[in-house]
Amino acid sequence: MTGTRPEKRSRRLAVWLVLLLLAANLPIFVLALASGLTVGEEKTEQAKATVARTAALAAAREAVALARLGGAVEAVASTLGAETAADDVCARLAVGLMPLETSIATVRVVDGGETPLCVLRATPSGQARSAAATGASAAAQAAEAERAPSTYALRLPLRGDTAVEVEIAPRSGPGRLGDLEMPPGHAVAVLDAAHHVVAAAGDLRLLGAVATLAETVQLRPARRLEVRLPDGRWMFAVSEGVGASNVTAVAMAPLADLQAGARRDVAIAVGLPLAFLTIAVAVAWYGIDRLVVRWVERLGRVAALYGAGRQSVRVGELDGAPSEIVALGQAFDEMADRVERRSNELKAALDGKTGLLRELHHRVKNNFQLVASLLSLEARDAPPPQLRSLKIQQDRVHALAIAHRLAYASGDVGGVSITQLARDVADRARQGAGLAEGRLHVVEHGAAATIDLDTAVPLALLLTEIARPHIAAAQGGGELTLAIDGGAAVTTFTFSGGPAAPESDALAIRLVEAFGRQLGAEISVAPRSGRSVVGVPRPRAESAGVEASEVKA
Fold this sequence. Notes:
Blueprint: H1 6-78, H2 86-96, E1 104-110, E2 116-122, E3 128-130, H3 131-134, H4 138-146, E4 152-159, E5 162-168, E6 187-191, E7 197-202, H5 207-216, E8 223-228, E9 234-241, E10 248-254, H6 255-307, H7 323-380, H8 384-407, E11 416-417, H9 418-433, E12 440-446, E13 450-451, H10 453-474, E14 480-486, E15 490-496, H11 506-519, E16 522-526, E17 531-537, H12 548-551
Parallel strand pairs: 12-14
Antiparallel strand pairs: 1-2, 1-5, 2-3, 4-5, 6-7, 6-10, 8-9, 9-10, 11-13, 14-15, 15-17, 16-17
Helix pairs in contact: 1-2, 1-6, 7-8, 8-9, 8-10, 9-10, 10-11
């Protein structure tokens, strides 16, 4: 997460919280969806069952009416004797049958050969008109009856081979179907064998669909149909046969109307949880943004600025933030104040220690200068044998003073330039020997390394011991060259001049070996050939102290 902006982190927090909320409510939403679909299917089936019940009721009412006609014929047949005349039969049927059903158009009494014995016709006033009343022949009445607008017939046995054919005329109104309770948009109709509507109720606009439905499929008793009409609508219909007659009751409704309630219930079952979930997500997002995210962003920005070094920045007042966020901001400010106070205290302590250390090194350098001055005064009155020894000690003290001077030359005890150290040490040895300035040449190659004081002291002493015999040789009329090569791994110091007399001082030889081991340097001293080489590794991994036994006089 390092480097991620606080805004992105806080927004990601809000997204994760919303996702967790969605995941927590997802099972409820799925259950609501499944329940809504199940309830919708059940409601659709209930609507279809209502259509089926309407068809069954219409068929039952038609069957009851036809059963009444059959019972009336049986009642008339029970009163007939073997010698009852046809006219008398018709008269009894007119009295016992015609009043039972206003939709009766014609009643025929036929023998076994289908020859009409008498014919009854219903008049506009509802009275029966028989063949005997008109005086016309039975055949003429039969022909007239055939021209009557009857739509379907019911054949009922009378006596022997004699039967009664009852023709039912189309009803102009709903008749027995008028009091059926149907939902809006539903319709019921009674059809004859030719699929003509003889009675209808409900939404009569669907009667056109009945004819199309009858032409599209074969209506059979107890059949459930879903048929697409030519106009693209889907119609659900249920057909029920009426007893043993050729009459069929059909109840129907648009399939879309039956499914509308189910779809509405599904929409409610799914929409309400979805709406609640949407509201919950919106409220959660708003609450998280107002109560958490905006304050987390502010704290993140302050922390980022503080981490970038602006330690004076503070969270400040968090008006309107939750108490937990306010407490967190106050804790951050208190922590920043404590860190700032502690930093100031440490800086003051460090400045004090640095000043003391600088003063200490300054005093050490002054003491070295004092010792060198005392040695110089001593050398003025010393005899020649002692004078050389005092000069050597004076050079060594000056080497120590040079190392300390360069260590705090920048105002603080720090790194020492290795080339500057070598240049100053060689120049001071030249001055101590009284050699002219132009007879010492210093040549530098490569980048200069920086060493600490613990390394600079032994290196200054080592270079002093190496340079002494070469400077002594140059006093006889030669010149001395110091080449400094700052390589990647080793800094090389090459003294050229001479030939010089070999160093016979045992202490000097011991010091060169001791300082070389301390620095890990490779030393090649050849005064007779006029060339000495010192290779010092750079940078040094660690410093080693000179053993007291090696530097002891």
